[in-house]
Design a protein that fits this description.
With 229 residues, the protein is an alpha/beta fold.
């Protein structure tokens, strides 16, 4: 991926969240369902390295680092504006020694260069893939960064088939304002990425009446290596 689309998307995200980041956590808790359940399911072993792809305001990282004090956490985001808020949250929580942050494009990351970590026992996306134009590339990079024996976790918008038509239309318009595009073929994309890497098992559940989808991709122990490039 060349630098031009990366810079363009970074500028777009900075523009969207320059002001929104100040109220993001207060407003998103009403419709970003399933985030805390994902954090419960991470359950990293002691000494594990955990990476959030698209960490935004740092809300998830602070909660996870507090919940799992024996793990180390890392977050990347393409928006410098969001990372400013994340850095403040991390410092305020007194977690600066256990949470590292970096500005990076999820579709072209090199975790070893960013964080000096070869592979992560847990990697997760929380309502991030629906905001990444080339989300297939982001999935490939995330799985490449997941250590053998580790897991990739994803929670994102489902198709909300049980929602009343009007409510679904309102939600769709709201999400479009922030360049969020739920992917009907998210499951197919995750299975394809797992197949490309090999040695992976995928599990799935639709939650809150199909409001959100949750996936886990488990890498087999000893199957290859993280191939960060």
């Amino acid at each position: 991926m060349n630098a031009t689309p990366t810079r363009a998307h970074a500028a777009l995200m900075d523009g969207v969240y320059r002001r929104q980041r100040h109220i993001y956590d207060a407003t998103r808790k009403f419709f970003l369902l399933g985030r805390d359940r994902l954090l419960d399911e991470l359950a990293p072993p002691p000494g594990a390295h955990v990476l959030e792809m698209g960490c935004g305001t740092g809300r998830n990282l602070v909660l996870a680092a507090t919940r799992y004090p024996e793990a180390r956490f890392y977050g990347l985001d393409i928006s410098a504006q969001m990372l400013e808020t994340a850095k403040r949250k991390v410092v305020k929580a007194g977690l600066g020694e256990r949470i590292a942050l970096a500005e990076a494009d999820a579709t072209a990351i090199d975790p070893r260069a960013l964080f000096e970590v070869e592979g992560f026992e847990r990697v997760f996306f929380s309502y991030t893939l629906s905001m990444v134009p080339d989300w297939h590339a982001a999935l490939d990079r995330a799985l490449a960064a997941t250590a053998p024996g580790g897991r990739l976790h994803v929670v994102d918008f489902g198709q909300q088939r049980a929602m009343p038509r009007l409510a679904h239309a309102v939600l769709s318009r709201w999400l479009a304002l922030f360049h969020v595009a739920p992917q009907a073929d998210l499951g197919e994309g995750i299975h394809a990425a797992a197949q490309r890497l090999g040695g992976c098992t995928v599990s799935f559940s639709a939650r809150y009446a199909d409001y959100c989808w949750a996936f886990q991709v488990a890498r087999a122990p000893g199957h290859g290596r993280s191939h960060n490039r």
